[in-house]
Amino acid sequence: MNQRTIQVDALESEAIFIFREVVAQFEKPVLLFSGGKDSITLVRLAQKAFYPAKIPFPLMHIDTGHNFPETIEFRDRLTQELGVELIVRNVQDNIDNGTVKEETGRYASRNMLQTETLLDAIEEFGFDACIGGARRDEEKARAKERIFSVRDDFGQWDEKNQRPEVFDMLNGKIDLGQNVRVFPISNWTELDVWSYIKKENIEIPSIYFAHKRNTFLRDGLIWSADDAVVFRDEEEEVVERMVRFRTVGDMSCTAAVLSHAVDIAKVVEEIRDSSISERGARIDDKRSEAAMEKRKQQGYF
Amino acid sequence: MNVLKIATAGSVDDGKSTLIGRLLYDTKSLTDDKLEAIEEKSKQRGFDYLDFSLATDGLVAEREQGITIDVAHIYFSTRKKSFIIADTPGHIEYTRNMVTGASTAQASIVLIDARNGVVEQTYRHFFINNLLRIKDVVIAINKMDLVDFSEEKYNIIKGEIEYLASKSEYKNQNLTFIPLSALKGDNVVSASENMPWYKGETLMHHLERLDAEDVQEETQVRFPVQTVIRPKTEEYHDFRGYAGKIYGGDLEIGDEVSVLPSQTKSKIKSIHFFNEEFAKAKSGSSVTITLEDNVNVSRGDMLVKVAEEPTITKQINATICWMDKEPLQASQKYYIKHGVNDAQAKITQLNTIIKTDFSGKIENPSALELNQIGDIQLKLSKPLLVDAYNQNKSNGSFILINPKTNNTVGVGFIR
Fold this sequence. Notes:
The complex is a heterodimer.
Chain A: E1 5-6, H1 10-25, E2 29-32, H2 37-50, E3 59-63, H3 69-82, E4 86-90, H4 91-96, H5 114-125, E5 129-131, E6 148-151, E7 179-182, H6 190-200, E8 211-218, E9 221-224, E10 239-245, E11 256-258, H7 264-273, H8 291-297
Parallel strand pairs in A: 2-3, 2-5, 3-4, 5-7
Antiparallel strand pairs in A: 6-7, 8-9, 8-10, 10-11
Helix pairs in contact in A: 1-2, 6-7
Chain B: E1 3-9, H1 16-26, H2 32-44, H3 53-56, H4 60-65, E2 72-77, E3 82-87, H5 95-103, E4 107-113, H6 120-131, E5 136-142, H7 151-167, E6 174-179, H8 203-209, E7 223-229, E8 241-245, E9 251-252, E10 256-260, E11 264-273, E12 276-278, E13 280-281, E14 286-291, E15 302-305, E16 311-322, E17 333-338, E18 341-354, E19 361-363, E20 373-386, E21 397-401, E22 408-414
Parallel strand pairs in B: 1-3, 1-4, 4-5, 5-6
Antiparallel strand pairs in B: 2-3, 7-8, 7-15, 8-14, 9-13, 10-11, 10-15, 11-12, 11-14, 16-20, 16-22, 17-18, 17-21, 18-19, 18-20, 21-22
């Protein structure tokens, strides 16, 4: 036998502990999977938490219909390789049945509309715990959220009356109809996530790496001109640029950044030196100072 | 990814947000877009200085009222280390949120406004730091620029805190006093030219030097089983692994262990982490363990080294910090959550309320109100495996949950 010692990094160990608490404390958990780097990291951590058993809950993607094709292709391949169940629910269905109204105009996005589809799916399947990849360093309302964040049967977050969360004891007791949003990587930073992906050699969708894309400029941000869902004025000039995406949200509200990072090592380097925050390229957060808080109160994850 | 978690404490307006802003600013941790947003909002509100609380007060209600209601976690790193700062509320009514932020911290910064000296909230915050047994506490005497960088003023405050510390029963604390000006940047990241009489380190220097592992106390191994892993696949037909996190020490293949509460003895057969096996696992690792013998182990059971057993008890004496609007009264029933284990608990006695200025106790109170700290006795529906909090933090603490509301209503420290 080798004499190797395992000392798991504190953040990884904390996340694995949280995953195991979810499975022990809840009847029907689900992992919210967008195909982005944070939820991909969650999947790896879930694998580690239960290995050699399989991940004991399904993955669910709330598809806005405006996702990057590279992400969807990646999503389907990953879930097949892992042998886990993938549930997909579509925002388009809510638009078609009239429960939400599609936005129009310059800043139209389906990001907000996801909430309704998510809440419907939670009710449909009776999920009592939804595991998400939100991090406290992303945004100032998220910085305030607990690891086990209780939501009422409207999905609402009561931000002024959160349960105390002391030491690593997680209280998952809820009433019927309530659910808990669980954030195992709350304490990770963007750089932690990238460093982890590099260390673990985890595969990620190609749009995270620099590639040539037809783009145009608006409000100081770079937008993809290849996709019909991104609103563009006739006079906004299309130019081919070398870009990559730092976050993989709805195409209509996710801007690209200029980059030459073609592999993961370069991405880590670039993030380390960046003077712009990750969500600086997410137009949905710029709608008002409290955009994220408002969305969370309505049931957004 | 070794991270030092720090909690800040201090009363309202003594500059917690400014200090955190200064740390972020001077370590170049604020991104351009966030800094621009702070500049723009500060100007819009007619402030003379950059209002860094705009970066940390993430809730509408906080920005409206200009106070911090709940903990914000702020992340930054220097070349040497990564930090998480819990920016906790100063107001007395949000003490429970301060405890939330401080409970996971390895170090704490207590801010004092040099003009006002030690005030009631300082007592409370200092007391909670002692109750939690946070080993490294920095007393940051802020706004030194407003008292002419007076050494005398600094010494008076230092003396008062040292006197307080002498009355605490917790003696292993490292107290560090740093005179600073968060607004002007003296002794935060750069050494101050205005206080040549101060020979100590800057705040940043001190924090960089702290080791996240060093500030933990040495303890015996506790391995509470979170979940049993049974893959039931061809390849792992007979695999039965116990998943959990090691608290306190190292576990090695061949170690003789006792399974509690049954007290069955066995040996560690293998240690798994994902698809690798290891000979030894260290404190803090979330691993999966198998045993030589086919013993009955389930969630809430605990593996410990033989001859290092905790107390198995149905009765607990504890100090409790009450966190609910509905007061604690003797003879009430709650759920107790101790690590990953649950039981029912009845308060058999409410002995005292402890005054947070170290001036004594109120005997036989009728109730313990929100944010008060007291000594209680509990009777449990089943035996729990406990240590005293001063022996093992994670195995010596618990929370109480109100069965009617499911809210976490108190945090307890076993005596």
